[in-house]
Amino acid sequence: MQNFTPFHLAFPILDIEETRRFYGDLLGCDIGRSTDKWIDFNFFGHQLSAHVKPEEVGRAKTNEVDGDAVPVRHFGAILEWEQWHQLAEKLKGAGIRFIIEPHIRFKGQVGEQATMFFLDPAGNALEFKSFQDPSQIFAK
């Protein structure tokens, strides 16, 4: 992944402290600036801004991808292979309820990847994935 340029994503949450614990303590994201209405995180090199906006929080619809019901509205990060496996074990140990359990998608095909989906405390869907061969990230 050459020429890495961080992205910025803002999303709705229910509670600052609950979100701080989830992204900061559980996922290990460094915490940036915050107020009682929003909080920034270093999300694997990207800037996330979580805004308290309960009326905008809701569960996304799904679409089938390789036999899984994938939440259409989701975000996440592509991790190194070992880092993905370490996070999967940490989440299992923390009792996280997965929407889609950690597994290998597109096995033996172009774009083969490790993937897992789970919700943050506000119900936002997150996907973490990894490729043993990073050249497969944008493969057709």
Q: Classify the helix fraction into a percent range.
A: 10-25%
What's the rounded overall pLDDT mean? Answer: 93
Q: Radius of gyration over alpha carbons?
A: 15 Å
Shape: globular
Biggest beta sheet summary: 4 strands, mixed
How does CATH name the architecture?
Roll
Question: Percent of residues in beta strands?
Answer: 35-45%
CATH topology: 2,3-Dihydroxybiphenyl 1,2-Dioxygenase, domain 1
- Unreliable spans are none
Order of helices and strands: EHEEEEEEHEEE
Report strand order across the widest sheet.
1-4-3-2
**What's the number of extended β-strand segments?**
10
Q: What is the level 1 CATH name?
A: Alpha Beta
Relevant CATH superfamily: 2,3-Dihydroxybiphenyl 1,2-Dioxygenase, domain 1
What is the end-to-end distance? 17 Å
* Structural category: alpha+beta
- The count of helical stretches stands at 2
Total domains, how many? Answer: 1
Please describe what this structure looks like:
- The chain has one domain (8-136): 2,3-Dihydroxybiphenyl 1,2-Dioxygenase, domain 1 (Roll), CATH 3.10.180.10.
- The protein is 17% helix and 42% strand.
- The chain is built from 2 helices and 10 strands; from the N terminus they run E-H-E-E-E-E-E-E-H-E-E-E.
- The strands form 3 sheets. The chain has a 4-stranded mixed beta sheet with strand order 1-4-3-2, with helices on one face.
- The mean pLDDT is 93.
- Keywords: Dioxygenase, Oxidoreductase.
Summarize the structure.
The chain is of the alpha+beta class. It has 2 helices and 10 strands, in the order βαββββββαβββ.
